[in-house]
Amino acid sequence: MIIKPRTRGFICTTSHPAGCERQVEQQIDYVKNQTAIQGPKNVLVIGASTGYGLASRIVAAFGAQANTVGVYRPSAASATRTASAGWYNSAAFEKAAQAAGLKSFSVTGDAFSEETKAKTAELIRSELGQVDMVVYSVATARRTDPVTGQPRTSVLKPIGKPYTNKTVNFHTGEISDITLEPAKEQEIEDTVFVMGGEDWQEWINVLENAGALAPNAVTVAYSYIGSQITMPIYREGTIGRAKDHLEETARKLDERLSANGGGHAYVVVSKALVTQSSSAIPIVPLYMSALYKTMKEKGIHEGTIEQMYRLFSNRLYGPQAVPVDEEGRIRLDDWEMREDVQAEVTKLWDKLTTDNIYDLSDLEGFRREFFQLFGFEVDGVDYEADTDPIVEVVNQK
To answer: ∠ at Cα 270 (113, 287), nearest 5°?
Structure first.
């Protein structure tokens, strides 16, 4: 079929296998051209098919020559429907890892389920023995409550009072005001349940009980804090409550792992990047468009793969002790939060209108990266070619 992008709001309902493969190859090439990392040997990535999870897996494998296990939802194609971008990304990763002689396995299933956790632990024991790093990179809107059997859904809302600010339709460039009503208490609780640290802790429990976690293992989960512009909808909103829970979980896990064998648990605070999740948050795409313009002009912009390489090479497995802030977090948002960067972004923010959006911000860069998440608008790919949407993932378990 000829595969074209089809959008529905902040979601693209199609993805392109050749475009996804090319982007995975580009990330691998970037890592190969950096200094090798003396890092982990066996790595589990939960939420491995896109974004930070995929980049973490690429850096571990091609930067540190680690064996990897990736966990992600199954989403294969049919003759009339494309697979998800995550499926195509994972197929490309597995293909490249196999060609490089690295051990790698894909476990497809619901990362929240006991079945997927048990299956993964058994695979690790039989194929790798133990993992010495666990990356938790799950971003989803829904999780089934194991007690009630009912799904619970996260929301993107402020807490306490309504919040009004500018937002943008990144497809059209139209800026408008948006008012978000405050979350109800149940919505806050549901968001913490879905996006907090409980499932991360359950993964560590299962791995420890199965003997699949090395005594000195390091585990990380990803988070974001952001600027004053996005604070009411993000860090001070429902998602922020979930991130608070994630950080509390990290402190408890770190204490336990450290006592048991010298392991550690960290929350990694990253910079604002175009992901399927960030595209869905009102106000954030407009903020990121101003941020991208500012950081690119200053020569300090990073994409997902650059962020993850810096995490592994300069933070977790660098020559010095792991640097953390007063809350024990690893900060990769240090360049975004620089005073000069935020001052420039705030100045742009106050000026942004529909008429000048493309002049004063990098909305076009944001829009292009959004489509690249799904394998479109990637240089060197023939989008007029007849393409088979059915792609096999080797080493799928």
So the answer is: 110
**How do beta strands 42-46 and 131-136 pair?**
parallel
Q: Residue 85 is which amino acid? A: A
pLDDT single digits (tens) 56-115: 999 999 999 999 999 999 999 998 899 999 999 999 999 999 999 999 999 999 999 999
H or E element, residue 255: helix 238-261
Residue 33's identity, in one-letter code, is N
The answer to whether 276 and 50 have CB atoms below 8 angstroms apart is yes
Q: Please choose, from the candidates 369, 329, 177, 131, the residue with its C-alpha nearest in 3D space to the C-alpha of residue 246.
A: 329
For residue 235, CA distances in Å to 177, 200, 268, 392 come to 20, 20, 15, 39
Tokens of 381: 């790919």
Spatial separation of the C-alpha atoms in residues 338 and 336, rounded to whole Å: 6
pLDDT in tens, 177-197: 999 999 999 999 999 999 999
* DSSP states along 143-187: EE-TTT--EEE-----SSS-EEEEEEETTTTEEEEEEEPPPPHHH
Which residues are known catalytic residues? Answer: 234
